[in-house]
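Troubleshooting log. The previous structure file for this entry was overwritten by mistake, so regenerating from the original sequence record. Sequence copied from the archived sheet and checked twice against the printout by T.R.
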Amino acid sequence: MWIVYLACAAILSCPSVSRSQDATGPRSRAVVVRHINIYESPGEYCAWPSIARTSGGDIVVLFTRTEEHLGPNGAILLGRSTDNGKTWLRPVTVLDSPIDDRESGITTLRDGRIVGHFWSTLHTKKFYENLAPNSYGSDQLDRWIAIVGNMDYQNGRKISGGSTAVSSDGGRTWTRLIRGHDSVHGGIELANGSLLLASYRESPDSIKVHMADSASGPWHRLAVILSPQPDSLSFGEPHILQLKNGRVIMMIRATARPYNDRDPRCVLWESYSDDNGKTWVAPFATPLWGFPPHLALLADGRVLCTYGYRRPPYGQRACLSNDGVNWSIGDEVILRDDAPNTDLGYPASVELERGVILTVYYQPNVPPGTIQRMDPPDPLRTKPGILGTIWRVPPAR
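Regenerated output below.
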C-alpha cells in the first residue's frame, strides 16, 4: 500500500474540474415535512449522532449520552425506528466503559453487517483544571476531578482510544471490541469490497486515511492530509463518500486557531481521490460555512452535505451538489434556525424515499426565542437531545 503525505501542493491534478464556486445566491428554507424527537431526557446531555439504514429496513442512530459536553463518563446509545423514522424505540446501550465513551460512527456493508467505530477518552485532573474560565461551575469541576481520580477510572487507560465492533443483526448484538480508529460518522465500503475510513484524533490537526480488507481489520494507513494553514486553521472530523464514477470525496471540518468555532474561516474544506484513497488532491476551501460535514449520495445522483451552523441564527443546514466537488452557497437550504445557542450540530442524513430526507442532529428542544445561559452552562437548562427533521430536497437545477 502507498503512503502519501499532503501539505499544500496537489499530488493529483484535474484541470477540467472547477471545484467549489463562491456563489452568493440567497439561502432557501427546506420544505419540512416535520421535526421529530428521537431521544431526550431531563438532565442528560445527548449529542453527536451517526445514522444508517440496516439491511432489514430499520433506521438506527448511534449517539452519546453524558452529563455535559466535557463530562468524564459518557456512554454510546442506539436508537431505532422500524417504521421509516415515524416513531422511535427507547434507545439501548451499546458501549458504557468506566471512562468517557464519547464518539461513534457507522459503516454499512453490502452483506448487511454494520461496523461501529468508537472513541473513548480518559480525562485527567489536569485537563479539567486547565479548562477556560467559566467553562463549568467549580462544584461540577470538583466532582468530575474526583471521578477521574478514582482508581477504577484510571484503570480504563488500557481501553482508551479507538475501537471497533461489528453487528450482523442490525445493531441488536455486537462482537467484542477490537482496536480501531475514530470516525465521527463512519466510513465506507468501496466498490472493490475494501473498507475506507478517515480519522483525526490519533494525532490532532491532520486527517488520516485508513483501509482494511474486512470489518475485523487490520487497518493500514494510506495517506495523511494536512491543513495548508496549520498555524491558523486546524483540520478534523472528516467524512467520506464514494460516487458512482468511483471517485472518493472527503469533506473536512476546519476550525480557526486559537479555537474559535464562529470565525468566518470555519468553512468546510474538501479533497478527493481517484485511486480508492491512495492519493488525494490538495484540500481546497468550499463556500459552505459550518461543521462537521456528513455526505450522502441521493437516488437522483446528487450529493448531499449536511452541517451544523453555529452563528446566528443557530441551527442546521444542508447543500446539494451535482458532482460532489462543485458547491454553491445558492444551493444551501436551512433545516433549522431556532436553536438557542451554539451547542448543536453534527447532522447526518439518510434518504427515506426518493427526494425525502431524514436528517438527525443534536440541539436543545426548546421554543424559538428561548435564552440559555452557557458561560458556565446552567445545569438546570434543557440540555440537548437527539432531534431530526424530515424534509424534501429541492428539484435539481
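The chain has a mean pLDDT of 92. Archived copy saved in two places this time.
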